[in-house]
Fold each of these.
Amino acid sequence: ADADTDSTQIETRRDLFFDRQDGQLDLSGWLATQKGFLPIGSVITEPAVGYGGALGLLFLHDSIANRAAQAAVPNPDGTLPRMSPPSASGVVGFLTENGSWGGGAFHNGIFLEDHLRSLSVFFYNELELEFYGIGGSFQLPIEKIDYSLNGSFFRQQFMSRVADSDVFIGINYKYASFDNQFKFDTDLDLPDFLTQPRNIKTASAGMAVEYDTRNTTFTPDKGINSRLEGNFFEEALGSDRSFFKGSLNMRGWIPMKKRFVLGLRWDNGAADEDTPFYMLPSMDQRGISLTR
C-alpha cells in the first residue's frame, strides 16, 4: 500500500511538469496549482528598443486550480458557476540593448464573485525610441529621428459585470508625465516640438466596454476578448492639453485540432490632432517598430 501511495505521488508530481499525452516538459499543471509568489521571465524582441529581457515577481492571491474546483460546484439551480481568475499583484522590470529600462507595480483585484474588477498600475521608464513622422501634411525630411522619453505613468480602473453576462462596463483615470528630447546632428529646418526638450503631462477620464469569454486570463485557448475604450484628456483633470483618444481591440481563440489553436487579433485606434506625437496610434506587431 505504501509503495502504491508513493507511486501515485510520484506520478502526480510528474503530471505537474510533464504533459500526460506526449511526455514533453509542460509547466502549466504546476502553474495552475500555485498561489503566492511566482517569478516570470520574458524575452523582449521589440525593434523600437532592441533585444532585452523583463523579469517580474507575481503574487497570486489564490490558485487557478482552486478557482476551477469552486467553479465545479453546481449552483442551486443546477448550473455551473463561472470560473473567475484569481486576484494578482506584482512588480516588473525590463532592460534592453539600446539602454531603455523601466519598472513598476500593479494590482488586479477580483471581487464579488468576479462581478467587480479593479486594476491599479504605476510605471516608470526611460526609453530610447525613433520618430518616423505622423503622416498627413507633416513629413520628416529624413527617415527617422532618435528621441528619449522618460517619465512615469499611473492608471486606475474599475470594471463592473452587467448582470450575470460576459459584458463589463467601467471607468478609468490615467495620468502620465514624460520628458521628451529629440537627438539629431543635422541643420534641418524642423518644428519647435522637435528641437526643444519638453515635459508633457496628460490626464484623462475614460469609459470602457469589454466582452470576455476567455477560459482563462493567463493562457487562453478558447473564447473572445474585445474592448472598446474612449479617453478624454482635459486640463481640469491635470492635463497640459485637451484631446480625445479611442481604441477598439478584439482577440479570439478557436480550438482547431488536438494540438492547434487559431488565434485572431484586430486593433483599431483613433486620436485627434492635439494628441502628443508619442501617444498617436502606431503599429503593435512583432517585428515592426512600435513607434511606426
Note: Residues 22 and 111 are 38 Å apart (CA to CA).
Amino acid sequence: GDGINDVFLVYPHCQILRFRMDIMDRWGNLVFSSRNENDGWDGTSAGRSPEAGVYSFRIWVEYLGPDGRNEQTYYRDALTLVR
C-alpha cells in the first residue's frame, strides 16, 4: 500500500500474442490467474489478503519475435509477499 512494488506485473518488451500467469501458495493452491499481461497480482486472493510468505509463479508467453515469427517462453520462479 506504499506505492512501491504493490503489484506483481510483467513488463513486456515485445508484442505479446498470448499470455498466462498463475500464482500459487506453498501448498500449490491457485491464488491468482490471468490471461492478460496488463493484469498484475496485488497480493490478494478472492478479495482477501493471504498470508505473507513465499508464492510460486508460472508465466507462459507467446510473442512476436524480432524476425516476425511467433516465439514462446516459459518462466517459473518464486516471489515473497511482505505485509
Note: The mean pLDDT is 91.
